[in-house]
Amino acid sequence: MDGIATENTNAGYTGNGYTNSNNVQGSAIEWAVNAPNSSRYTLTFRFANGGTANRNGSLLINGGSNGNYTMQLPATGGWTTWQTTSIEIDLVQGNNLLKLSSLTTDGLANIDSLKIEGAQTKAGICSGIASSSASSIKSSSSSSNSSASNTGTLLTLDGNPAASWLNKSKNKWGTDKADTVLSYQQTNGGWPKNLDYNSVGAGSGGSESGTIDNGATITEMVYLAEIYKNGKNTKYRDAVRKAANFLVSSQYSTGALPQFYPLKGGYADHATFNDNGMAYALTVLDFAANNRAPFDTDVFSDTDRNKFKTAVTKGTAYILKAQWKQNGRLTVWCAQHGATDYLPKKARAYELESLSGSESVGILAFLMTQPQTAEIEQAIRAGVAWFNSPNTYLDGYTYDSAQATTNPIVKKSGSKMWYRFYDLNTNRGFFSDRDGSKFYDITQMSEERRTGYSWGGAYGNSIIPFAQKVGYL
User: Fold this and answer.
1) More exposed terminus of the chain, fewer Cβ within 10 Å: N or C?
2) What are phi and psi of 119, to 5 degrees?
């Protein structure tokens, strides 16, 4: 390290002492950590900062190839006043080098210890770099059936359905609608759904629950970020920040995102993949976390982006754990899953527990925006195989809603049709009515539901060509 590796002047430290880095910008401390597997870990630094200003540091994992974070090390009120700060990072299996470098001319805060929580770790090899012996490394275990690591190749976003949706959302409304859109934002940062923005709202927007249903909130967030990027009016920047905080605040500890927040009860409290809500919300947060347009401005701080990265990682882990196994084989997802038990759930009476031919497209598209780890690749390959299976689609048919009064499933040479709902165990496409009854022949259900809902479509055609493009088929 750059400075005193083991100092014991100021009381309150643990172990043999604490590190005291040189008071210059760039002074650094390095640790080596041996991880049993590639996974997400929580680092907790115990530190003291007796100065009057923050002594923040840049934390590089393996030279930045596995993460570049900003550690906030604020003033603690005295050099004998110790506090802790935590951050979630990704470590690769085997040896990892962690380097904390001062971002200020005052140097770093005094570091007493570094605690690592996740799979059991041990000291690694610093390869000749002088590491801190005073700043002790502690580790503890936590169990998880699936985790998402950020180590893996990135696929192109060109043609990805989730990225394409986001790019279209930048110009969802004309620039003259910006203030109207802003006028409907709730005090919690979210928006209501199904607004046409033809008239100005009430101002602060009220305190009702915001929603991600039908693209609400996330579309407005992308649109206003583009408005801010082109005009730099801070009222739009602030609205985008509020929207991002709304999304992060709404997330369950499991990583699930509900349909409404604050929670309203009922099926809306489940993890909401319906209408691509959760998948596209995570896509937006991922673009923000990685400084991609339209968030490639000062709209977010490094602290914000780190927070978004954590939210995306948690959401990805939830998705991987919720993927349904049919006869022991991974398939796709339901339109909504339990936020804590990960199981498929029903929504409205005619939206039964099922595999979704529609919503699973958006989930796969989101997963394809992430580093392609072994877990993510396995999930994508299984989902794409499900869509591409003759046991899933109807070959030579299309869904024509104009003929719903009789039978919207009609023959069409060269076409493929996927059902909206599939039986969880048999993979058979089905339909359901307002009383919850289940049909395998669409002509047997009520005309009201047959004409009032979309029961099929060319869903797979939205993901299969992109899967082929990036090598999944």
Assistant:
1) C
2) -65, 150
86 compared with 124, residue with greater pLDDT: 86
d(CA 456, CA 402): 13
Strand partners, 439: 431
Give the separation between CA 84 and CA 58, rounded to whole angstroms.
16
Give the model confidence (pLDDT) of 106-122 as tens digits.
899 999 998 888 755 55
Residues 6+ apart with CB under 8 A from 300: 241, 244, 288, 308
Residue 146 pLDDT > 60: no
| Right CATH for 161-469 from 1.50.10.20, 2.60.40.10, 3.80.10.10, 1.10.3720.10 | 1.50.10.20
What is the Cα 467 distance to its own chain's centre?
Answer: 21
DSSP-based three-state secondary structure for 185: coil
H or E element: which one contains 278? Answer: helix 277-289
CATH class of 3-141: mainly beta
What is the C-alpha separation between 279 and 361, in angstroms, rounded? Answer: 9
User: Partners of 122 in the beta sheet?
Assistant: 34
C-alpha separations of 324 from 321, 327, 447, 467 in Å: 8, 10, 31, 20
Cβ neighbour number for residue 396 with a 10 Å cutoff: 12
Distance CA 239, CA 188 (A): 10
Across the range 444-465, mean pLDDT stands at: 97
Whole-Å CA distances, 224 to 194, 275, 402: 17, 21, 36
DSSP string, 304-355: HHHHHHHHHHHHHHHHHHHPPEETTEE----SEE-TTT--B---STTS-S-E
- Residue 241: is it exposed, middle or buried by C-beta count within 10 angstroms (0-12/13-18/19+)? buried
Provide the residue ranges of all domains of the chain, joining segments of one domain with +: 3-141, 161-469
Instruction: Give the predicted TM-score (pTM) of the model.
Output: 0.70
pLDDT of residue 147: 42
For the cut 80, the answer to whether the pLDDT of residue 206 exceeds it is: no
Maximal CA-CA distance, the chain: 85
Burial code (b: 16+ CB inside 10 Å, e: under 16) for 326-363 equals: beeebbbbbbbbbbeebebbbbeebbbbbbbbbbbbbb
Q: Could you tell me the two tokens for 368? A: 């394809």
Please give the full DSSP string across 81-148, using - where no structure is assigned: --EEEEEEEEE-SEEEEEEEEESSTT-PPEEEEEEEEES--EE---TT----SSSEEEEEE---S---
CA nearest 124: which of 86, 92, 150, 84? 92
Q: Are 391 and 385 in contact (CB under 8 A)?
A: no
Say which range, 66-70, 137-141, 302-306, has the weakest mean pLDDT: 137-141
The strand pairing partners of 419, in sequence order, are 456
